[in-house]
Amino acid sequence: MSNEETMTSGIYILTLGVMFGTILAVFAMKYISAAFAARAKMANDEAYRALAEKATAGLTENQVSLGAIRGELASVSASLAAVEKILKQVG
Fold first, then answer.
1. Long-range contacts for 32-41 (Cβ within 8 Å, ≥24 apart)?
2. Widest Cα–Cα separation across the chain
3. Using CA atoms, how far apart are residues 14 and 10, in angstroms rounded to an integer?
4. What pTM was computed for the model?
5. Measured between alpha carbons, how far is 51 from 49 in angstroms, rounded to an integer?
6. For 32-46, what is each residue's pLDDT tens digit?
7. DSSP state of 26
């Protein structure tokens, strides 16, 4: 009888262990999934920040180029005005 009681106790403890182990495994998977999601979000945020910095640098570079083009256009416009003035005086 003690052998049957030991087997029954062993099976009972094994059943409880499997049940609690399953619950712990589910929570562990949920925690690991949340950790991976947080790491992926952090990496995504870093990539977005780098992209924003590149865009800002590009906009600054475009502003400088646009300023140079405007300066050149003003110079060409002044030269054209001088040529027109000379042509009006000649003609």
1. none
2. 131
3. 6
4. 0.53
5. 5
6. 999 999 999 999 999
7. H
